[in-house]
Write a structure and sequence with these properties.
two-stranded antiparallel ribbon, 6-stranded antiparallel β-sheet, 29% helix, alpha+beta
Amino acid sequence: MKKTVLIISIIILVTALFSAWWLHPKSGAATYVTSSACMDCHQEEGHSWVRTLHPKMFRPVTSDADILGDFTSSDPLLTFSRDAVQYVVGNRWEQVYVTMTDGEYHPLPARWFIKQQKWVPYKVDSWQTFNMSKNCNGCHTTGFDPATFAFSEFGIGCESCHGPGSRHVAHNRKRTSWRCKICHLRPAGTVNKQKDIILSVSSTVCGQCHNRGKNKPFSSQDTPVFNFPVQYVPGEDLAKSFTPLTPEKDKENKYWWGNGIAKKRHQEFADWGKSNHAKALTNLRRNHTLMMGDLDESCLQCHSTDYLMADNDAKPTVRTAQYGITCVACHDPHKMGEDVKRLPNEPCKRCHFPEKGLCRSTAKYNHFPCPEDKVECVDCHMPYVVKSGGWFSIRGHAFVIVSPFDSALDKKSDKKSGKKSFMPNSCQNGGCHQDRTLEWMQREYSSYYSRADNDNQ
């Protein structure tokens, strides 16, 4: 009998030791576990995320619904069949179709403009040698490995912003798994105190991809040059691992307008960096005077995103706050724009309510001449000046008025057609005043605001 009890005890002990080894976080760096593992616990965030564009940025074709292009077209640009499409990039403005050859992803030589319903050429002469692993996949996949070009999952998943999640998942098992609870009898609130996942409100989290430039080369080895950062850790200084493209380096004016605002997608971070939103905390500390009242934590409600997002018992002070108004102050990070599109004025009104609709507190004239029910804050301060899918479909993120006079300053000829092109302005884009000439808009703009400024003095 004693021998039987001893054998059973040994079996239980060995099983417990094996379970502890198997279930506990292994030594070494955290690894990627994919978004599906995150959604086991974070269901609300996960269900919002799957409805955004992020998980659809690059994906294998699983059904006919994934492909939006018209493959019955007789357009001579369409030189490949639907069967050649193995992967798809994009699903709102345009779609790029991808095939794999010898283990590398290559874009096929025509893309589909969704709104315009037409085919346009895409890397016709270079698509067979265009290496998506070096040019695209770091921002269109999650967990990209620059040494092997492999990645954890298609699309932009949870770990693109929060870092690899293996330790976070393992630590949370201690309070959710019955196997772990056998040994871990501590209160649930004491289990997950260590920093096992990244939670950052820094705009660099978005800027790692909403940016153009080159990864800085590794110091210890010869590596390919990537068009995205591969050494970046979410929340850290992006400049350590990435050299951004700037207007000064853009010799052909391909990516920036003459006033320094981005004209192509993937440049929102650069525009934000020039804005007063980015400088909100710095300007508060630098420019505050006693005439404005006390400089205290109440100011941080509109000048610091880390204050805005922190729990009530962990709010930073004016001295310890780190960030101004970053991306997540306006964009729910798990909805990415869908909430802002529905109520575009709401993020603005949180801070800009005292002077809402007025040039000054005692102004005689409205802040804008248009009917209040016809325009939103973003129509003027975030005009559609960025081209995607064949037309100006993305709002600028410099948060500045683009006047009709800015359009005239940016006039130039298109090299191929010879036609004059103008920068879209705040008055003539997004459905507003598109039927008017630039000269008419300049006269009206100058007349209204010069009169308002004079009468409001």
